[in-house]
Amino acid sequence: MVDILHRVGIKSPSVDDVYAALTTVDGLAGWWASDTDGDANVGGTLQFRFGADGFDMKVIELQPAKRVLWEVIEGPEEWVGTRVVWDLRRDGDYTVVLFTHERWKEPVEFMHHCSTKWALFLMSLKAMVETGTGAPDPRDVKIDNWN
């Protein structure tokens, strides 16, 4: 199995600001998918829609200001069964986000696309926390015909 890994530092008054952006429907809609709905509590399911496509994520673990873990339960075949992990820690004026999209069965071309898109959306998260305005779908940068 292979993983997508990214790291970003977000200038924020506290880790709680980043944690809220990852654990509330409004926060998630502000930087990832404008069309976000669901239950953000442990055991709940979040639905992220990108036009006609989308993902359903089961919330597996929440450690306030430290960790968020989702499992993909619906979406593209390559995503189902993978996990999305957000590990957070403080470093000076920054909240460091260690992002992992883990348990891909193989490094298919779609994984390359998703890695680039995750990087763009992490920059959207950074912008939302730092400036109040992210670039969620459909306002995100489109990189190819997969969007």
Main sheet: which strands, in order across?
1-7-6-5-4-3-2
- How far apart, in Å, are the first and last alpha carbons? 25 Å
Poorly predicted tracts of residues = none
Give me the CATH architecture of the domain at 11-96, please. Answer: 2-Layer Sandwich
Per CATH, the superfamily of the domain at 11-96 is START domain
In the CATH scheme, the class of the domain at 11-96 would be Alpha Beta
Form type: globular
Beta content comes to 35-45%
Counting DSSP H or I runs of 4 or more residues, the number of helices is: 3
Number of strands: 7
The CATH topology of the domain at 11-96: Alpha-D-Glucose-1,6-Bisphosphate, Chain A, domain 4
Helical percent range?
Answer: 25-40%
Look at the helices and sheets and give the structural class: alpha+beta
Q: For the residues shown, what is the average pLDDT?
A: 97
SSE series:
EHHEEEEEEH
Radius of gyration using CA atoms only = 14 Å
| Largest sheet features | 7 strands, antiparallel
